[in-house]
Amino acid sequence: MASTSDIKNGLCIKHNHDIYKIIEFLHVKPGKGPAFVRTKLKSLTNGKVLDNTFSAGHKIDTVRVETHTFQFLYPEGDDFHFMNAETFEQITLNRNVLDSPDLLKEGENVMIQINTETDLPLSVDMASSVVLEVTYTEPGLKGNTATNATKPATVETGAIVNVPLFINEGDKIKIDTASGSYMERVKE
Fold it and tell me: Which range of residues forms the domain containing residue 76?
């Protein structure tokens, strides 16, 4: 058992008969009344995010997890296949466990958190950004760059990302995996 003083980002806890990962937290000490911790929790079973407030000193039930490096092998329908980089053991995860499955490229390494009590995977953490090649986009119109206009572009994994008008087919772009948005064009 831990208390609210042990709360940190990435901590996995049992709450309301489910396992949640703490995405963000804030210790609040108002001028009047007791202190409390405001948290944003993400369910590791269904992916829903909820806001919750714990009073200071509240006991929380933590879940012991281990983090391992896995390599993404290939998608198969709604299932994604991964291989442990150390033991070469393969696991299959459903699409809804992943934060941004459309941005996963074959051969990419991810960090998977595994519950040590049940040996079941809890969450998949991708790199903060990925570099992908644009496979299809409409050509930009010359002289239409004064505004922050964007156009849809399809990248090599099949995801559709809004990009500036100067991006062309064959360009490599950096994409933020948390929001799925364009960051910059990558020069080789």
Answer: 65-121
